[in-house]
Amino acid sequence: MKKKLVSTNEYKNVVNVVNNYIEAIRTGSVERLEKTFHKDSVTYGFVNDKLQGGASNPAVDFIKNHGASPDMEAHIDVLDITPATAIVRVVTGSDAANSGCDEYLTLLKLEAGWTIIAKAFYQFD
User: Does position 101 have pLDDT exceeding 90, yes or no?
Assistant: First the structure.
């Protein structure tokens, strides 16, 4: 059995990826958003109590429809991490649609670094 040895630097690396995702929403940058998600990532969640998602990322449509969210607030919690996986909760508020979300992100550490491979979310008014 392997010991769980994950350096604090890896936590920082995961948080940096998630911060890039948040900044993509804040600045309205689809290009930056796409750099934080793996090309084969999946996203599912509820907007107005309706399930959205799949292989596409609804955050891209959010940016295209609403633009930047410069006043968006965000809080990041790394819930668990291993040498190659991480689960992160992101709580946001005051986005461009004047809503907030609870999001759960799954990240993998690949050769190129940490990337988001899955997102589950619930949007609040």
Answer: yes
Sign, CA torsion 108/27/100/122: negative
Domain regions of the chain by residue span: 8-124
| Angstrom distance (rounded) from CA 125 to CA 113 | 34
pLDDT tens readout for residues 40-98: 999 999 999 999 999 888 899 999 999 999 999 999 999 999 999 999 999 999 999 99
Q: Which CATH architecture has domain 8-124?
A: Roll (3.10)
Its pTM stands at 0.93
Q: Tell me which long-range contacts 94-102 makes (C-beta under 8 A, separation of at least 24).
A: 94/69, 95/25, 95/62, 95/66, 95/69, 96/28, 96/62, 96/66, 96/67, 96/68, 96/69, 96/72, 97/62, 97/66, 98/125, 99/123, 99/124, 99/125, 100/124, 101/45
Cα–Cα distance for residue pair 101/35, rounded to 1 Å: 21
Residue 9 dihedral angles phi and psi, to the nearest 5°: -65, -35
